């Protein structure tokens, strides 16, 4: 009986060693496949408008092993990418053994304004939260002029001299975004009035009362003014019976 028991135990040890050896071989084969068969050749970058593809790649592929697609994919499964200005987060997907995709989620900024006390531009979101402080001007973000700032702190609501005006401004910018009518520049005037600048067209928008009705009318009129220069007066518009006038810019006479 003792001999049989020893023989049985020896058989178990042998099977265990064979199984372990098989596992080692499988792991070795998998390692060799990943090492030699997953050389990164293509990096696709999507969602980025502010930073270039090369800037994004430089942040993600930042060590000696970043030539391997599987390594890069699993690296960012357990670690967040380094932060970049104006970027919320980035998502890395393995598309094939030789290709990864980096999708960039940029911060949703509704406008920016210069803060004299810091010498920087404060970029705010739709709720008035300061998402970024930078000396850089980003294209396709509305420049806000005329808003008096009291204090600015990153990731906090912008503190201004007139909170009511700021509240109206946020309502206006959010509605402009909804109608895809965000201007290049937005001026804050006295009495909660606003001026919108669309290239050669200036819109004296007035205050933010009857906001949706005003926006519908402006959205109908602006395409008709394409190619013109002048000022659209909406400051007195209150309802459908109110007048809206367009004052063309007088062309300068060339002296002959």
Quick description:
The protein is α/β, with parallel strands linked by helices and 256 residues long. The chain is built from 5 helices and 14 strands.
What would you note in describing this structure?
There is one protein chain. A 9-stranded mixed beta sheet has the order 6-5-4-7-10-11-12-13-14, covered by helices on one side. Strands 1-3-2 form a 3-stranded mixed beta sheet, with helices on one face. Strands 8-9 form a two-stranded antiparallel sheet. The chain has helices at residues 2-37, 53-60, 69-75, 163-178, 211-221; strands at residues 42-46, 87-96, 99-106, 111-115, 120-124, 130-134, 142-145, 149-151, 159-160, 185-188, 194-198, 201-206, 230-233, 245-248. Helices cover 30% and strands 27% of the residues. It has 2 domains: 42-106, Ubiquitin-like (UB roll) (Roll); 111-248, Rossmann fold (3-Layer(aba) Sandwich), CATH 3.40.50. Strand 10 (185-188) and strand 11 (194-198) form a beta hairpin. With 256 residues, the chain is of the alpha/beta class. The longest helix is centred in the N-terminal third of the chain and has 36 residues, at 2-37.
In angstroms, what separates the terminal alpha carbons?
125 Å
Strand order within the widest beta sheet = 6-5-4-7-10-11-12-13-14
The unreliable regions are none
Helix content: 25-40%
Helix/strand structural class = alpha/beta
Anisotropy-based shape: elongated
What amount of the residues lies in strands?
Answer: 25-35%
CATH topology value of the largest domain: Rossmann fold
Instruction: Encode the helix/strand succession as letters.
Output: HEHHEEEEEEEEHEEEHEE
The radius of gyration computed from the alpha-carbon positions, rounded to a whole number of angstroms, is 30 Å
User: Total number of β-strand segments?
Assistant: 14
User: Mind telling me which CATH architecture of the largest domain this is?
Assistant: 3-Layer(aba) Sandwich
Number of contiguous helices: 5
**Main β-sheet: number of strands, strand sense, barrel status?**
9 strands, mixed
When the domains are counted, the total is 2
* CATH domain class of the largest domain: Alpha Beta
Instruction: Round the mean pLDDT to the nearest integer and report it.
Output: 87
